[in-house]
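Final report, Chapter 2: Outcomes

The project's central promise was a pipeline that accepts a single protein chain and returns its three-dimensional structure in a standardized token representation, suitable for archiving and comparison. That pipeline is now operational. To close this chapter, we reproduce one record exactly as it appears in the project archive, with the input sequence first and the structure output second.
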Amino acid sequence: MKKPFIKMHGLGNDFVVLDSTKNQYNINKASIQLISNRRFGVGCDQVIEMRHSDKEDIYMKIYNADGTEAEACGNAARCIAGLLFASSPKKAVSIETIAGVLKAESEENGLIKVDMGKPKFFWKDIPLSMNISEINFEELTLKNGLAINIGNPHIVFFVKDLDAIDINRIGPLIENNSLFPEKVNVEICQLENRKKIKVLVWERGAGNTLACGSGACAALVAAYKNSLSEPQAEIVLDGGSLNITWNIGSDEHVIMSGPIAVSFLGDLSTLGIEK
């Protein structure tokens, strides 16, 4: 029996999308790890499962490459929204996740924007293992980190020279630090100007990725809270740019806009994953 999938990406942040509203899949930690493996499987940062939702247009379940579950993913939400837009005349959809509902809209320029909700800063909402006023990793020459939950936990640092950062070395050290009981996504940022920020990403459970939607949102929020940027800026990631806006003065939601793409279609049955 065929088990179709769609390989998609948002700025190189890539996903294997499984539509469980139409097909049956054997989804467990081992199968997720195999699908995500770039040598023995399809290869992706996350596996996304589409399920029926009783209240919204679709339910989106997110699995990291290591088999753990993520609460939210902005780039994945934009990809799923793109599939829904392609199969219906709708210009706006609601996507249910474990972290809540994400609302996405199709823009005239072909981009897709998603409302990532209101960021949280209270230490128990991140969560952190303790109430701490400053987050410093001086042994990594990183200081004054800002912890943010924007659907999932993030820690954001600003540096003067992003090229000097070895994200593959420091990323896992911070991700697995005991300060973060649910682990954490890491963003290292360099300010280009008040409307442009360069960002390196280490995603919890996935590693160094070319882009991270919620990470881009966290970077903008952290920059604005530190009086480094305007409430709207271009976030430049390794895979390209996202436009992020923090609706200061209104609902305080963070809006992300950017492109998506379908890479190819395939069949998981060739991997030997049983039904």
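Archive annotation: Residues 74-86 form the longest helix (13 residues).
This record, like all others produced under the grant, will remain available to the consortium after the project formally closes.
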